[in-house]
Write the structure tokens for this entry.
Amino acid sequence: MKKSLLALIALSALFTFDCSKKSQNKSIAVFVPGICDNSPTYAMLVEGITNAVNECNETKSDEDKIELFVMEAGTNQAEWGPKITALAAEQKYDVIISSNPSLPDLVEPIISQFPNQKFILLDATKEGNQNIYTVCYNQYEAAYLTGYIGALMSKTHKMGLIAAQEYPVMNNILYPYFEKGGKAANPQTTVDFRVVGNWYDATKGAEITDALSKKDVDVILPICGGASQGVISSAVNKGIYITWFDNNGFDKAPGTIISSCIMEQVKMAEKVTKEFLEGKTAWGQAHMVGIKDGFVSFVDDDPNYLSVVPTSIRQEMTNLVEKIKSGELTIN
């Protein structure tokens, strides 16, 4: 994964957009608060930004090309603050782009030290700071849809959510709206919430899944990074269904994974990068995008989805998504 992502930086793009003189000699840093391997959100972030930079560089001479630097900060969250501070302290990047709900709180003190540093933060919300532009995905919709199909597929009416850790978006949106979606599909549904404690411990993920299976949980949503590999392995052995988040995960365990709700991170990363290079970033603003905007998607055409999920349930999910798209149903 790392090699393919780095290779993307060297590729030429097939299409171009208007870079104009505003983007001349720009330098962009991508701060990955984690690692790209087994982290689809971060892999898509790098891919999208790289695509946009390559498109711009296709029309530029060598001396005017946009410079792109990618830093993977690792899974130790205690190191994120110092590492992104060091990145800003270089004072060579016109913008630092990242993706994580915790980033606004990390970067605000940095801006007080380096008032010229700009940040674009995806999957995050912060309004009013003229050095920051944020875009968050409508996680209410994604969590609700995931809980809804999980409850429709559950035979025991018992679901689980395995999180890497507790944080505001998890506690206030993902967990409660996963449960809300489940209860909307079947009022008897319960959700057992468990925490791994980090984003990488696959062994712990498997142990938690084993424990949930003993409580007759038969559908699990893992949001725990690399630890999800352990969840999947145990789920396959125990006959537990998995609902997936952030990207299309059906091929990770065909027959076990019953749904995938996608955050269109590649498309959004390309969009915000192009806007920056064209001088169109809405600094100080915070935007939310969802199903209506085309940046949250429920995968309904994957062969594994079609083969595992009964026709009646697929039709019910199609109707639910259409209600959200039309505005008949609002989830937030």
